[in-house]
Design goal:
- The protein is an alpha+beta fold.
- It folds into two domains: 138 residues, Jelly Rolls (Sandwich); 66 residues, Orthogonal Bundle (Arc Repressor Mutant, subunit A), CATH 1.10.10.
- It is 38% helix and 20% strand.
- The protein is built from seven helices and ten strands.
- The strands form three sheets. A four-stranded antiparallel sheet has the order 1-8-3-6.
- A hairpin with a 5-residue loop joins strand 9 and strand 10.
- Helix 5 packs across helix 6 and helix 6 crosses helix 7.
- The longest helix has 23 residues.
- It is globular, with a radius of gyration of 18 Å.
- The mean pLDDT is 88.
- One of its GO terms (molecular function) is DNA binding.
- One of its GO terms (biological process) is regulation of DNA-templated transcription.
- This is Crp/Fnr family transcriptional regulator.
- Keywords: DNA-binding, Transcription, Transcription regulation.
Length: 219
């Protein structure tokens, strides 16, 4: 697959340069329930997620009993900050599903960006989006209503699906949804069941949740 299909960072690059960059990449599939990196590991390579699902957790904790910073989806890029200063990843990343990635050494990417310094603006834009996403996550956690936290996550998933039509569909279990927003699986199940009965959400054959109409402001 052409890099620009899933990764807007490379949009506008000449096809030959995208192909040359991809030639430096190695393909790797992280199996479900495997460790991708530790928080202390140096970010000396960039990971482009093509397929699957990962999660970022608080350092030193095991998935399922730790703080979930967020999910890493097809089209996401891990380790961009390492292009500017080789530091640790800062979070532990775990594969929740079999996840196929392209892994690029920092040196290859730095050389490609230096060939056209304007490309560094795109890197800055990606990093700024990450900060914006993190601030949105903190804002969501401050929301006292469990329903409104779930509402925001469902709306974010819907936005992701519409903005990335070529990306594999995002499917989260009720436990994973609850872990993301601090609700029990049982509470998530109850809310989704009532939203489904009200015609607000549907579930496709893969288990993905689809918004059928705008969610109510209150539950």
């Amino acid at each position: 697959m052409d890099l620009s299909v899933l990764f807007p960072l490379f949009a506008g690059w000449p096809a030959a340069e995208r192909e040359a960059l991809r030639a430096h990449a190695s393909e790797h599939t992280f199996t479900a329930d495997s460790e991708v990196c530790t928080a202390e590991q140096a970010a000396d390579q960039v990971i482009l997620v093509e397929y699957g699902l990962m999660a970022a957790y608080a350092a030193g904790e095991r998935p399922g009993r730790s703080f979930n910073y967020g999910y890493i989806l097809p089209g996401d890029i891990i380790g961009l900050h390492g292009l500017l200063s080789v530091e640790a990843y800062g979070v532990a990343i775990h594969a929740l599903r079999d996840t196929r990635c392209l892994i690029l050494p920092n040196a290859a990417l730095v050389a490609a960006f230096d060939a056209d310094p304007a490309r560094w603006r795109a890197v800055a834009g990606q990093l700024a989006q990450s900060v914006h996403h993190l601030l949105g996550f903190v804002s969501m956690l401050a929301e006292p209503s469990g329903y409104r936290r779930l509402k925001r996550v469902l709306e974010n998933i819907d936005t992701y699906t519409r903005q990335r039509p070529f990306a594999p569909r995002m499917v989260l279990t009720q436990r994973e949804l609850g872990e993301r927003i601090g609700l029990s699986r049982e509470m998530v199940n109850r809310i989704l069941r009532e939203l489904k009965a009200g015609g607000y959400v549907g579930v496709d054959e893969e288990g993905g949740i689809r918004l059928l109409r705008p969610l109510p402001a209150r539950f």
